[in-house]
Amino acid sequence: VHYTMGGLWVDYNLMSTIPGLFVIGEANFSDHGANRLGASALMQGLSDGYFVLPYTIGNYLAQVKLGAVDANNASAKNVAQDVQERVNRLLSIKGKRTVDSFHKELGRILWDYCGMSRDDAGLRKALELIPALRAEFWENVNVPGSADNLNQSLEKAGRLADFLELGELMCIDALNRTESCGGHFREESQTPEGEALRDDENFAYVAAWQYAGDESAPILNKEQLHFENVKLTQRSYK
Questions:
Q1: In the predicted model, what is the mean pLDDT of the chain?
Q2: Which residue, among 92, 114, 94, 235, has the nearest Cα to 168 in the 3D structure?
Q3: What is the pLDDT of residue 93?
Q4: What is the distance between the alpha carbons of residues 44 and 38, in angstroms, rounded to a whole number?
Q5: Full-model pTM
Q6: 115-148 pLDDT, tens per residue?
């Protein structure tokens, strides 16, 4: 409910699997994983930013010889072209709804159907509403201004386009995981006393969803969790 929980894998120095890409704070999973405690996440952001990254990134850069940037690199040119086309598309729609109105509607859908408490029917409903909202966004959003100056509406629109994709994926993942665990409470999976009921036999894995194209469903990759010194057991908050 607070934010997107979990995050990217990082090593001891907070570097991801991509050399040179460091991930800190709530964006990685190094200390707490899929936590729902705001104080814990705040601590992680402070410790990573103040005490860890200033040293680890400096050590990394001291050992890396960076060559000159090739402005004609094909990959770089393709990315720049894709971004420019996306910006032009957002600015050219000139619809009747503001970015904020779409943002609030997406938030309401996720709050109502994919909050801490979810069920099968609600998640399926969200997976009907979000694609429809995304289609309307790309047909009816109004982004005032231009790309020549600082444009907060354009910045918001770009982020919201990503949020629409992420929101749908969150619902797909939540629908697939029929257990209750961490910040994910499936109403169909609870004890007679109303406690969260886990299913470690079928869901002791990290879900990594793979993009398969705009017209294809994402592909689920399972990274199995293995425990040697800790025995998985049902948690009680009583």
A1: 89
A2: 114
A3: 98
A4: 10
A5: 0.81
A6: 989 999 999 999 999 999 999 999 999 999 999 9
The residue type of 176 is: N
Q: What is the 3-state secondary structure (H, E, C) of the chain?
A: CCCCCCCECCCCCCECCCCCCECCHHHECCCCCCCCCHHHHHHHHHHHHHHHHHHHHHHHHHHCCCCCCCCCCHHHHHHHHHHHHHHHHHHHHCCCECHHHHHHHHHHHHHHHCCCEECHHHHHHHHHHHHHHHHHHHHHECCCCCCCCCCHHHHHHHHHHHHHHHHHHHHHHHHHCCCCECCEEECCCECCCCCECCCHHHHCEEEEEECCCCCCCCEEEEEECCCCCCCCCCCCCC
Work out the pLDDT band at 34, boundaries 50, 70, 90: very low
> And the tokens for 68?
């000159």
159, 74, 177: which is closest to 119 by C-alpha? 177
* 53-99 tens-digit pLDDT: 999 999 999 999 888 878 788 988 999 999 999 999 999 999 999 99
> Which of 112, 139, 116 has its CA nearest to residue 125?
112
